[in-house]
Predict the 3D structure of the following.
Amino acid sequence: MARETFPARLLKKVCLSESAQCYHFEFELTDRESFPYTAGQFLSAVAVDGNGKTQTRAYSIASAPSANRFDLCVNRVEGGFFSNYLADLPEGAIIQIHGPHGHFVLHQPPVDAIFVATGTGIAPMRAFTQQLFPETGEDLSAGRPIWCVYGTRHESELYYRDYFERIAAQHPNFHYISTLSRAPQAWTGNRGYVQQYVGKIVEAREARLGKMQPVPEGTDPKTLAFDIYTYICGLNNMVSEVRDLLTEHGWHKKQVVFERYD
């Protein structure tokens, strides 16, 4: 049974990276005044391709809820119908969507958190950050330390860099760590992969608070509550390696929330 779709108008399109052909999109629903979703969820866009076939593609929402609006962050993929369809949209165009979907959301109440992303996996992390540190209104982080570890190949692919650096400057409990895997010689920032920086955060935390205590066998998973979670979004290899790293440090699988897009 086909899902009900609803129209969304493209209000603004910005190229975040010419080299990676990554675009930031701002949409507004045209037939309703609100779009209730939770930061971290995704929506599905629907369109008919040149062969008359209906195509559907899921995209993480790159913004916290705001009336009837939402943002997306999408790379143009060579030969990919949907990424090119979106990248070529003119402002004012209408697309069809359904959603929201997914369970990649922050645990409540707020506790310590590590956000880990590569590429356009930064989209839900931007939504999380907007939710915790809104431009106006109450800071919802409860003062808990939040780390955002973001890895890309090149400096031009550090999407939303200005935003994350501004939030880090405004909120001492928010720590933005970016790293390049193919950094040029002139680059003075972090080099390497997100895994090594997640490891450093975990080791520093263990030095302060001790190692993670194992959950007793037979514990009902529904009763588990932790003082820190890690949220990971990116390609499968990165997700798996970060999960393995945390497991080696004694983290329970329920503390590691992830979404992969390959």
